[in-house]
Amino acid sequence: MIQSSKLLSQTVREWSEAFMHRSMRDFKRVMNDTGLSFSQINILMCLMHGGCEGVSDIGERMGFTNAAASQAIDRLVQLDLVKRSENPQDRRGKQLELAPKGLALMQKGIEARTRWVEDVTESLTPAQQETIIAALTLLTEAARARTD
Amino acid sequence: MIQSSKLLSQTVREWSEAFMHRSMRDFKRVMNDTGLSFSQINILMCLMHGGCEGVSDIGERMGFTNAAASQAIDRLVQLDLVKRSENPQDRRGKQLELAPKGLALMQKGIEARTRWVEDVTESLTPAQQETIIAALTLLTEAARARTD
DNA sequence: GGATATAGTTAAGTATAATTAACTAATAAA
DNA sequence: TTTATTAGTTAATTATACTTAACTATATCC
Fold first, then answer.
1. Of residues A144 and A87, which shows the higher confidence score?
2. Of B126, B113, B49, B104, whose CA–CA distance to A8 is shortest?
3. Closest Cα in chain A to B14
4. H/E/C letters for each residue in chain A?
5. Could you report the average pLDDT of every consecutive run of 10 residues in chain B (148 residues)?
6. Using the CB atom, is residue B80 less than 7 Å from strand C?
7. Which residues in chain A touch residue B25, judged by CB atoms under 8 angstroms apart?
8. Chain B residues inside the 8 Å CB shell of A24
9. Which of A14, A134, A144 shows the shortest C-beta gap to B140?
10. Average pLDDT score over residue span A29-43
């Protein structure tokens, strides 16, 4: 099935390019609206998605020092977007999680990014909608499985 | 088909969240590897996608002044990522396009973002692959149609 | 032809993200 | 218990993205 595989590859490429282009515009808009930096939104996204444990962990994942992470998180805490509490198991460490306001902000972002999909899909036939559901479920599982 | 529509909405939401989380990590990695800023990569993406005409146009789309756009583009030109030439129709304006090096960089980025999809899809059945192709084609067309 | 508007550049100043280095506090190891 | 390691914070410095303002050059309008 060489031909089908090539078509798939091209399809994925075009979709990725179009989606990224739009996502970046939305991302930039959120930055302007909220006054948050790229890194700060990235931190919120990491907390939303799960897998970011402490301050140093976030620094590593984001590619900067734990000092920078501490400062960035501090601003997010002051803005009521992140809740920072002591870890009872290891009192050196901090437990970080999205505060309600931060969760709402992230959900609003996801809304914006997905609205155009929902718009187009509501005019599709049930069979076509099932196609989208099946495909996106596969892709979401693939994305989650790859934790590298 | 209320139930199916709700499921679709939820599916899109989860996919969007997972994809964005991964894309942002890749985006940050490209920033670190190349030393380019968020805005500079965004400009390259805009030129790649088409629809960014001159310097001021880019400034408007990116949400900053044309002075900032001029400076950002100048750095990209110095790095051989963007080709800036005079517009023969209106000699005040500049024609901007990706230089070969810039095009290669963007394509490498798309590669990275789509590799995980290609990885998972190559183990799927032809029928499942067709499902993905059909869904992503629909979504890509939707993304392109919405030029707002 | 002269006034106005548009496209872009340049320079100086501002704001802030991130680094380095020095520090505190809690845990682990010796 | 003493030492070393780990987690995080803080302050001073650096780097740079972006703004404002002044400028040049081309195009359009009267």
1. A87
2. B126
3. A140
4. CHHHHHHHHHHHHHHHHHHHHHHHHHHHHHHHHHCCCHHHHHHHHHHHHCCCCCHHHHHHHHCCCHHHHHHHHHHHHHCCCEEEEECCCCCCCEEEEECHHHHHHHHHHHHHHHHHHHHHHCCCCHHHHHHHHHHHHHHHHHHHHCCC
5. 66 84 85 91 92 93 94 96 95 96 91 78 83 87 72
6. no
7. 61
8. 42, 45
9. A14
10. 91
What is the mean predicted confidence (pLDDT) over A98-112? Answer: 91
Contacts of A9 in chain B (CB under 8 A): 114, 118
Tokens representing B147 are 């030029």
CA A88, C1' C29: Å apart? 22
Over A12-45, what HEC string results? HHHHHHHHHHHHHHHHHHHHHHHCCCHHHHHHHH
In this complex, the answer to whether residue A39 has its CB under 7 A from any atom of chain D, a nucleic strand, is no
Nearest to A66 by CA among A78, A52, A49: A52
Residues 95-134 of A with CB under 7 A from strand C: none
Contacts of B107 (CB under 8 A, 6+ apart): none
> Is B92 within 8 Å of B99 (Cβ atoms)?
no
